[in-house]
Design brief:
The protein contains 9 helices and 15 strands. The chain folds into 2 domains: about 120 residues, Rossmann fold (3-Layer(aba) Sandwich); about 180 residues, Dihydrodipicolinate Reductase, domain 2 (2-Layer Sandwich). It has about 350 residues and is α/β, with parallel strands linked by helices. Bound molecules: nicotinamide-adenine-dinucleotide (NAD).
Length: about 350
């Protein structure tokens, strides 16, 4: 029996990736919808075989409690709404899968973790790339020291955010600009590839004066992280440029490059190391994996956790760890000086 999911919020991600993504799932099925737009929800329900009785709005949300078909609630709302709906879902007795960024503050993340713990429900954050095969392969190579000692990580994730009225550009709804929305992928990757938590951050922030899009939130942020092993990370993120989604991990014996790295599909992973045959030359190989939908993979992982009572690979603590560092990045940019972070052990349960 597949695990039943409710999708909360029928915006772009839900309609273009998640709802269609269930077709590729083996353990998960769509059984309920939550939307403020009933007509839209009815159209989606008809198209995907969801019962009309299983359509809820934000007021009737708590009635999910009485629908035993729903085991998991997937929160796909503007960032400022993640905490409230996670807490309400847990109180309705449901496991929660929540989009990134987990929330707008560390305090909200803690409330979400506490509410799920109190209700004895599972909580995971939708870090899709931690379920993507090229990223997984690179994590494994890094852990096995196949690149040697890791020295540098570089990553850029940016895109144009066009509409000044979009919730992503309203601080109260988004929590910030490019950094919590897309820069978070660079930060998360630096953490899962190093297997460590950073101990120091530095950052510079810039928003083009007079650009109506960036009255409330940051346009561009460049940040540096220092990890306990000595690995340094240098990352950029922006809402004002043509799409750029690459990363490079540099070790003492080899480098790995992925471009695109952060896209929904089409990852390409290149590895370069000194040639055995000719020490003056480099051998460069491409490693390829068949992917399928990243969204189906992460949803099925969480369904498996529900079915077999496992701890999710990207639990609430993983989302809170990024939020703690995002806070420090903003603080570093504001104060114009590096910020020390308390040493923390990375949860590195690679499942
Ligand atoms: P979107 O604007 O397309 O959809 C948001 C939905 O929330 C809409 O259906 C909207 O009607 C609804 N909503 C309810 N209350 C609202 C309010 N007060 N203001 C605005 N909208 C409201 O956004 P999206 O791109 O689908 O993003 C939703 C969430 O998913 C965000 O947290 C985002 O960070 C995350 N996301 C993740 C990925 C990923 O790759 N994992 C990709 C895109 C978005």
């Amino acid at each position: 029996q597949r695990v039943g999911w409710a999708i909360v919020g029928l915006g772009h991600l839900s309609l273009e990736e998640l709802v269609p993504g269930f077709a590729q799932c083996k353990r998960s099925r769509l059984v309920a919808l939550v939307s403020g737009d009933r007509a839209k929800a009815q159209t989606v329900a008809r198209q995907y075989g969801v019962s009309e009785k299983a359509i809820y709005d934000y007021k009737s949300f708590d009635q999910l409690r009485d629908n035993p078909e729903v085991q998991v609630v997937y929160i796909v709302l503007p960032n400022s709404m993640h905490a409230e709906y996670t807490v309400r879902a847990a109180q309705a007795g449901k496991h929660v899968f929540c989009e990134k960024p987990m929330a707008n503050s560390v305090a909200e993340c803690q409330q979400m973790i506490d509410a799920c713990a109190k209700a004895n429900r599972k909580l995971a954050v939708a870090y899709r790339l931690q379920y993507e095969p090229h990223h997984r392969a690179l994590i494994e190579m890094a852990r096995k020291k196949e690149l040697g000692t890791l020295k540098f990580f570089g990553a850029d994730n940016g895109q144009n955010q066009g509409d000044p009225n979009h919730w992503r550009l309203k601080k109260a709804l988004s929590g910030g600009g490019a950094l919590p929305d897309v820069g978070i992928y660079c930060l998360n990757a630096a953490r899962y590839l190093s297997g460590e938590e950073p101990v120091e951050v530095q950052a510079t922030l810039y928003s083009t004066p007079g650009d109506a899009r960036f009255k409330e939130v940051d346009e561009s942020v460049a940040f540096h992280l220092r990890f306990p092993s000595g690995m340094l990370a240098s990352c950029t993120t922006s809402y004002g440029l043509h799409r750029s989604q690459r990363m490079r991990l540099m070790g003492s014996e080899a480098w790995a490059e992925m471009n695109p790295a952060f896209a929904y599909e089409g990852q390409r992973l290149m590895i370069g190391r000194k040639s055995q045959a000719n020490p003056k030359a480099e051998d460069i190989i491409e490693r390829r994996f068949s992917g399928g939908s990243q969204f189906a993979r992460e949803m099925d992982h969480f369904s498996q956790c529900v079915q077999e009572n496992l701890v999710p690979h990207t639990p609430g603590e993983e989302g809170m760890a990024d939020m703690r560092i995002i806070d420090a990045i903003y603080r570093a940019a504001r104060e114009g000086r590096p910020q020390k972070l308390e040493a923390a052990k990375r949860l590195d349960a690679f499942r």
